[in-house]
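Changelog entry

Holo records now carry the ligand SMILES as an explicit input line rather than a separate metadata file. Below, a converted record for S-adenosylmethionine, shown in the new format.
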Amino acid sequence: MTKNLDQREGALTTRPTAADRARALLDPARCRELTTHAAGYLEAAEIEIPATQGFGQQLMRTRFYAGIYQLGRPLGMRVASALQAPGRDADRARTAAALRLQPGQTIFDIACGPGNFTGTYGQVVGPDGLAIGLDASHPMLTRAVADNSGPAVAYLSGDAENLPFRDGVADAVSCLAALYLINEPFRAIEEMARVLKPGGRIVLLTSLAPGGRRDRLHVTAIEKLSTMRMFGRDEITDFLRALGFGEIEQVTAGLAQTITATKS
Ligand SMILES: C[S@@+](CC[C@H](N)C(=O)[O-])C[C@H]1O[C@@H](n2cnc3c(N)ncnc32)[C@H](O)[C@@H]1O
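Structure line, unchanged by the conversion:
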């Protein structure tokens, strides 16, 4: 087992690496062993990566898009949110605050892309905490390891719809700018709820159908053209409520919605 050296109060102790601590959270019925890919992220033979079903998903699996994504995201978010999105650093700080992240906690960043939020979470939870970014895209994970690593950060190749973790092991879970790309987004939300501890926080940032209504012809057309799902105003909040979440808050801005909630 690889260890980080930790020198505190003059004593030389060893600390398990973030990858070792990520392994300890696995559900053996879902995933028995993780190996390290040459690019530096974790993977398992039993974890199936979903096939892409549309242009949006295909784009996420390209090296080109993974390479430019972090640069273009703030602009994309400003457009989607009718100019209401904050800048990059304010967005990361605001999300960490909404998750109520504390040093020592465990956070899963589901569909983490190039780790643009996971790296910040790792800094907030500190060396005694753990931030795991999970994504289905090899190029995104490769960028995540290169750009947003840290002593409390691990990246894992996986499917948001079938998380490999045990029940109730995370203090917080985020899924940002990704639910609209996931084939079965409500299955992914159920999985995030499963791995959260009671009292754990969730933050979801996703699309909002124009006018908040999904049952419109032009919304169907937008979905078909973009290959991305547009969510109705109450779809996700109602689903979280049915799963037993409380403290549900929703902020809408243009074609974007951010939902925060606490698992009961
Ligand atoms: C637009 S990026 C979002 C990255 C980051 N969370 C952010 O807010 O900037 C969407 C990510 O969702 C990932 N994704 C889509 N479907 C997924 C699935 N079923 N499981 C895991 N990741 C998935 C894509 O590979 C892509 O990296």
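Spot-checked after migration. The chain has one domain: 37-263. The radius of gyration is 18 Å.
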